[in-house]
Write a structure and sequence with these properties.
Elements: H1 2-11, H2 34-45, E1 50-54, E2 63-69, E3 72-78, E4 84-88, E5 103-105, E6 110-111, E7 118-119, E8 125-127, E9 146-152, E10 155-159
Antiparallel strand pairs: 1-10, 2-3, 2-5, 3-4, 4-9, 6-7, 7-8, 9-10
């Protein structure tokens, strides 16, 4: 019984909030307010390096993993030169998702399901269907937008900073 009483003596100072000025307490809205969450997403989560996969998950050229980082869709893939690249998982034409599965192989490149624009594993546009309808678009100028990617200790990391 003495052991239980001693344990309660240890906890009792924490049973009530300490007498501090109201400015010394954390406003609990930081845990639930969607505006604060969006600001944290933009200023903290999107600006830091995030572990996206282990390089063994991308053993062959064209192997990819689709992730969402800070609310932004990205695709991490093994390129033809065996490097690991990260692209925003959206077609630069209309913003449709390029890959819809969480993982797979895009050996023949990435193709938008909306207008069938096709991109090589290095992000360069290789095909624009009905190109006459897209005056001003050039295969040489059209590429996927890159996110930053880095390999450290067999892990693939991604950032937008």
């Amino acid at each position: 019984m003495d052991h239980v009483e001693n344990a309660m003596d240890h906890v009792s100072p924490w049973a009530t909030a300490p007498k501090l000025p109201s400015t010394h307490y954390v406003d609990n809205r930081i845990y639930t307010d969607p505006v604060i969450f969006e600001e944290e997403r933009e200023k903290i989560l999107a600006a830091t390096w995030r572990l996206v996969c282990h390089e063994s998950e991308l053993p062959e050229p064209g192997d990819y993993r689709a992730k969402e980082i800070a609310g932004v869709p990205v695709v991490i893939l093994r390129s033809e030169d065996r490097s690991i690249m990260a692209f925003f998982n959206v077609c630069p034409h209309r913003g449709a998702r390029l890959v819809r599965d969480e993982r797979g192989n895009a050996k023949k490149g990435l193709q938008c399901l909306y207008h069938l624009w096709t991109f090589a594993l290095d992000g360069k546009c290789t095909s624009i269907t009905r190109s006459k309808g897209y005056d001003g678009c050039s295969l040489k100028k059209t590429t996927l937008d890159c996110a930053l990617s880095e390999r450290k200790s067999s892990a693939a990391w991604c950032s937008f900073a």
